[in-house]
Design goal:
signal
Length: 190
């Protein structure tokens, strides 16, 4: 019996190693795809057809320039739009797209740069601050997202398996956008 347990353990360990060596990363076309190349811009220059994937690219451009205020504002915009997309995209596995986009945006920062960026974010997005109030108004002016969230849909398992409608048609995008502004950024409802 002892021998059998050791043999089973050895087989499991061997097969795990073999499987690890043959891991293949599959991606669907459009996964996290950038459709509009955004520079480091002010939120007022954004359009409601820009996806979080697009805007995170702009955020990365701001981080490269060490413009942490602009990067923070683009991050906040992307976060609001990402929350709306997570509500309307039926495939829950696709919602991790936002986490991956965030990680990709900051992956090249040193620990000092990340710390500086975090401090600016905390100050800029402080509840009730003038900077947050100005940002909220700019995002509200751009308005609710007006695009098909393929970047997120293609990130989920549903893109491989098919069969379900990727968009929950019952979601009111404008209402969800306003909720995301208050829940995510603590913007004053108007």
């Amino acid at each position: 019996m002892k021998y059998l347990k050791k043999l089973v353990f050895a087989l499991i360990a061997t097969s795990s190693v073999a499987r690890a060596e043959s891991i293949i990363n599959y991606q669907t076309q459009g996964n996290l795809q950038i459709t509009n190349n955004i520079a480091c811009v002010d939120v007022s220059e954004l359009k409601n057809m820009y996806t979080p994937a697009d805007v995170f690219k702009g955020m990365t451009n701001c981080l490269d320039k060490k413009d942490y205020v602009a990067a923070t504002n683009l991050y906040a915009f992307s976060r609001v739009y990402g929350m709306v997309d997570a509500k309307r995209v039926s495939d829950r596995t696709a919602h991790q797209a936002m986490v991956v986009l965030q990680m990709n945006a900051v992956r090249n920062l040193s620990s000092d740069e990340l710390n500086s960026f975090s401090q600016v974010m905390k100050a800029t997005l402080s509840t009730g601050s003038d900077s947050l109030n100005r940002l909220c108004k700019k995002i509200k002016t751009v308005g609710a997202p007006n695009y098909y969230p393929a970047y997120m849909i293609q990130h989920g398992m549903g893109a491989f398996m098919g069969g379900q409608n990727p968009i929950d048609q019952s979601v009111d995008v404008t209402k969800t956008f306003n909720e995301a502004l208050t829940q995510s950024l603590h913007c004053n409802p108007e």
